[in-house]
Amino acid sequence: MKSVHNFYGELVFTKKVMEQKLSKSVYNKLASAVDNLEPLDQSIAGEVAHAMKEWALENGASHFTHWFQPQRGGTAQKHDSFIDYGAGGEIIERFSGSQLVQSEPDASSFPSGGIRSTFEARGYTAWDPTSPVFILEVGKVKTLVIPSVFLSWTGEVLDLKTPLLRSINILNEKAIEIQKLLGNRNAKQIKIFAGIEQEYFLLSKETVKNRPDIIVTGRTLFGNKPAKGQQMGDHYFGNIKEKILAFMEDVDTELYRRGIPVKTRHNEAAPNQFELASIYQEENLAIDNNLQIMETLKRVAEKHDLEALLHEKPFAGVNGSGKHFNWSVGDNTGTNYFEPSKSPLKNITFLLAISAVLLGVKKFGGVLRASAADAGNDHRLGANEAPPAIMSVYLGEFVSELLDSIEKAKNITEEKVNEIQLGVQNLPKVNKDYSDRNRTSPIAFTGNKFEFRTLGSSANPAETGTVLNLIAAYGFDEIYGRISAKKASDIKQAAIEVVKEIIIETKAVRFEKNGYSQEWQKEAQKRGLPNTKNTPEALKQYLTKDVIKAFEKYKILSEKELKAKVEIKLENYIKIKDIEYKYAVKVINTLILPAIVKQITQFSKAAKSIAELNISSKHLAKEVETLVNIYDKVRELAAKLDAFTAKDHGEILETAEKYAQEGAKLLDALREKIDAAEDLVSDEYWPLTSYQKLLNSF
After folding, report:
1. Exposed/middle/buried for 383, CB within 10 Å: 0-12, 13-18, 19+?
2. Which residue of 78, 425, 507, 609 has the fewest CB atoms within a 10 Å radius of its CB?
3. 249 or 2, which is more confident?
4. CA 375 from chain center: how many Å?
């Protein structure tokens, strides 16, 4: 096997390639735009486009595409050939600066949430130079891919990347303001980093053949718990089977070729569940890379006769899949603002950064929950495998004790804070981390970063990244205003006083114990923390006055764009649930009920044969009676679910709420009866591959 060094990043238009292909002045201008968030000098677009085209052609690409992130989910692309035609009909391979910077795909079929009419088809993609151009290789076909934003022709947001980039800009502005106020002149630019862990399931193609529900909806609509599931814990971090290891190796190779620095791969808690994680990168790039990771998992699985499931809850009674979003903020000097330090200035920055997050979660915790809301994640949140829907912050022993000591100190000064911190740091520690892990917390401080554990495995992380940035920007903005209002001669002293105020104000969102417990549900209600149980309920958080005001103030999304966003997410939710409900009825009518009839017939024949021998069997008669009752009840419930999907439920929010409640109850009731039938119908007749076979196929 070739060394990774020989092919790492070979499909990426890297800085090294730029240096080779571009003149020095153009390279410096482009590098400055990428590294320093400066506006792109349009005069260099032509030379950059030519260099990209030459590099792409050298690597076998024939087309280019602007790759963007529509609000429907996933990614989108429209391919255009490099080929153009001269006056005499001769073929010319061209790629101009204007083609690089902007493209115009037909936007009529993308959801807009009412921003434009269907006949207003124009949408524009615009190059995002902060994320590297790369080559997409599918079989023998290669395409130059240009990461882009997506806007309507009137300039409104139609994607998930634009709000993310705007949130990065505002966090940069607000955090730098604080640093300047503290006298730090070395911090010129804020760096936001993310490390995203990706969980997924793998199934063999053969076992999925008889699971049409998985093929259509991405999850099982019916299925009994396996006798041996995850209760032994033997799959978690266990030996990786040869077939799976071969798949993982191919995934890693494909990602390395794209310059995606995946680091970790292992078995997860549930059978046939796995995880991979990449190392920390700047947030925008980490999110783009995660989208590539999800696409690569699906594509490589096909080559290995596997089915990769990214649904948050493919199996009932078995752990679902999440996407842990590790997030930190620092600056160009290499300082991580979430890293405790003995340096007085860095120490104050650490306390202010923690305080900013606490303020932001207190104010906008409900929106953070909403950023992770979708139909799949509703099945996962709150179970003993994922955090509850209540947004609280776990800080760990070190930081909690530090904040408590600051709160209790009568006369708090910079010197006193340093004394407190040094005292806390001298407590016995197992390792260098300043916090243990609390897997029950949705927002856990893990030493030098926060880990947001609520995000679902199929989600685009850009939405959560946007809200995390908004939360921090709001916190820093509020802190700046409070420090300035004190008009103190000693800014650091004023900052410490503000920290103490915030520690007291935000105690309601700090929780160090078991987030899975019922006690926490009751306690959170007393504290006034939002606890939105499903997607329609959660999405209302986006439309509160304070949230709209913040998104508009920081120029992330306008009120119109926010309302459109919510409408799109509600539409998507309804469509997903509608497909599940309608397909459940189809599977019941065409597969499940006929199987039950076959078993009833078989039992009836057996009972008749036994009776002819003057022998009676009360057990056989009971099983026939049970199956007949199940058949009748399933048929009745299926008819109700069918009628439910055919009914007009009113406005979009009302419809979504009914799908989340009435529709879900009907499907749950059906599932209970059908799963009971699975235990009574022989394998010969049961049409769906069992959980036992699905989850033990390797």
Report:
1. middle
2. 609
3. 249
4. 13
Cβ 155 vs Cβ 124: under 8 Å: no
Residues 499, 408: Cα–Cα separation, whole Å = 12
Q: What is the CA radius of gyration of the chain?
A: 28
Q: How many CA atoms lie within 13 A of 505 on its CB side?
A: 18
Tokens read off for 229: 């599931």
* Residue linked to tokens 């114990």: 513
**Separation between Cα atoms, residue 510 and residue 391, nearest integer Å:** 9
**Inter-residue contact 677 to 685 (CB < 8 Å):** no
The SS3 assignment for 61 reads coil
Burial of 612: CB neighbours in 10 Å, binned 0-12, 13-18, 19+ = exposed
pLDDT of 436 reads 53
Q: What is the pLDDT of residue 269?
A: 87
Q: Which of 482, 529, 536, 533 is nearest to 510 (CA)?
A: 529
Q: Are 321 and 315 in contact (CB under 8 A)?
A: no
For residues 572 and 459, what is the distance between their CA atoms, to the nearest angstrom? 13
Handedness of CA 41, 42, 44, 48 (dihedral sign): positive
CA dist., res. 183 & res. 491, Å (int): 9
Q: What separation in angstroms does the CA of 497 have from each of 176, 384, 490? A: 20, 39, 11
Tell me the C-alpha distance between 247 and 272, whole Å. Answer: 13
Neighbours of 429 (CB within 10 A): 11
**The dihedral of CA 27, 31, 34, 40: what is its sign?**
negative
Q: pTM for the complete prediction? A: 0.93
Pairing of strands 450-452, 443-445: antiparallel
Question: Which tokens in the block code for residue 563?
Answer: 């309302």
Instruction: Give the model's confidence band at 119: pLDDT under 50 very low, under 70 low, under 90 confident, else very high.
Output: low
DSSP E strand stretches across 205-272: 262-267
Closest CA to 223 of 314, 307, 310, 312: 314
Label residue 617 by pLDDT band (50, 70, 90): low
Beta strands in 86-167 (DSSP E): 91-93, 102-103, 123-127, 134-138, 141-152
CA distance 677 to 595: 10
pLDDT value at residue 432: 47
CA proximity to 341, closest of 333, 482, 191: 333
Q: Which helix (DSSP H) or strand (DSSP E) does residue 56 occupy? A: helix 45-58
Half-sphere exposure of 445 (CA within 13 A, CB side): 29
Secondary element (H or E) of residue 329: strand 325-331
Non-local (6+) Cβ contacts of 303 within 8 A are 250
CA distances from residue 215 to 73, 210, 350, 671 in whole angstroms, order as listed: 18, 9, 48, 18
320-376, pLDDT tens digit by residue?
Answer: 999 999 999 999 999 999 988 777 667 899 999 999 999 999 999 999 999 999 999
Q: Within 10 A of 698 (CB to CB), how many other CB atoms are there?
A: 15
In this structure, how many other beta carbons lie within 10 angstroms of the beta carbon of residue 36?
10
Relative to beta strand 79-81, strand 306-309 is: unpaired
Contact predicate 407/504, CB 8 Å = yes
> How far, rounded to the nearest angstrom, does the alpha carbon of residue 510 sit from its chain's CA centroid?
23
Q: By C-alpha distance, which of 360, 439, 373, 438 is closest to 400? A: 438
d(CA 116, CA 288): 27
pLDDT at 6: 87
